[in-house]
Design goal:
Radius of gyration: 31 Å
Strand order of the largest sheet: 14-15-16-18-19-20
CATH topology of one domain: MutS, DNA mismatch repair protein, domain I
Number of strands: 20
Largest sheet: 6 strands, antiparallel, barrel
Distance between the termini: 16 Å
CATH class of one domain: Alpha Beta
Amino acid sequence: MNRRFVSLWFRHLTTDWLTLRRPELKDVPFVLVTPARGRVIITAANALAEAQGITAGMAAADAKAVIPDLQVIDDIPDQAARLLKALGEWCIRYSPLIAVDLPDGLLLEVTGCTHLWGTEKDYLKEIITRLISKGYDVRGAMADTIGAAWANAHYGRVKPIIAPGQQTNVLLNLPPAALRLDAIILDRLQKLGFYTIKSFVGLGRSVLRRRFGSDFLLRLDQALGTENEPLQLLRPAEPYTERLPCLEAIRTATGIEIAIKTLLEKLCHRLQGEGKGIRTAVLKGYRVDGQVIQAGIGTNRATHQVNHLFKLFELKISSIEPAMGIELFTLEAPKVEDAEPEQEILWSAESCGLENNSLAELLDRLANKVGANNIHRYLPQERYWPEQSIKPAPSLKDKPATVWRTDKPRPSLLLARPERIEVTAPLPDNPPMLFIYKGERHIIKRADDAERIEREWWLDEGPHRDYYVVEDEQGRRYWLFRSGHYLAEERPQWYLHGFFA
């Protein structure tokens, strides 16, 4: 499941709050000011003042020259932070994961929350409508990344919700300011003629780092989703913890075993439902005499298998001294990670080899459900050209005449015919920096060295192929190749030949 985030932008946060408390200001242009370096500077302007050209950062005297009847009110220090915290506490009804985005916004992680209101559109509309009804001028947007949601809320003009995996397409047409860059960097980009993100996103990372610094690349990667962006939550997420109070104090090893199993079953059931597993876990026992004893375990990979975790704790039971008895057990998992679902071994001889009738019966049932033409089995054959190196097997009884090639990576889905793509690639033999396939632009983040596959000259003539395994900004991996050499008078054609799972 893609993570989903919402950015809320309160365009007139402090002036809206003041208007709610002083209704007489509703139809009056006014600003909030604070003294700075011997001058009175505007910190916020309401919508009526902004409509006449007044903005934050102007001197109050200059603003009065533009609007003689402008109301000037002293700003309250740190008022924006207090307002955002209060609004964030109110928004916890929509998501428990909320962060203040100074000076005028909130950030929500809404993964797994939107379905409670119907669709993502219904969810976002509910939040915006409720906040507007409270008197705040607010814009909101939703996306896979914090940066993309923030950019669309502040600079987007089409749709507030960016579909999963589409943040790159939306960001490309927005101005550089949508990346939350420093004013100095924005001024430098403006002078160089970079008026949209797409005008520089295809440049090499070393060039961008040298000209604009590592923080620039970090903001770009966070918006595109290739770099995680942490949230400073208003209310830190509750740790994975289970409690087991005892009616009678536990003093035996058997009782401790039962307590550990009970706690593990509760915690692992929760983790399994969220697709997570334990990396570290701590068992604490609160004794009648006021002492707290504990035992911890760690795993090499995330797991929610109760039996495996219990065996690890079982090694620790001898070190748990109950003394007069333990009246409360707690089990906490301070470190959890996404757990990959375990898959049963289907093709090994120990479980269900090709000779096993159970496999044939399974295939029969599937064929009658989805159609026999949708089930295929392939065997390797000794050919150089990838699309000719496999052949369909008529039945389960057919044996391979050669072995599968495993020394080089091969895609899990190989196209029957390579499809042409447009690429931007350095010359002469580097992998491409980006490619366009079916109208979608893919920016390449990683690429392996070329693998040259020669044409079978004894069968036909033509150029060789240089294959590259590449990975785009979404982490999707592709098998691309260039047909032939670069020539001065003619550029070679590029093709997409397969997809990696």
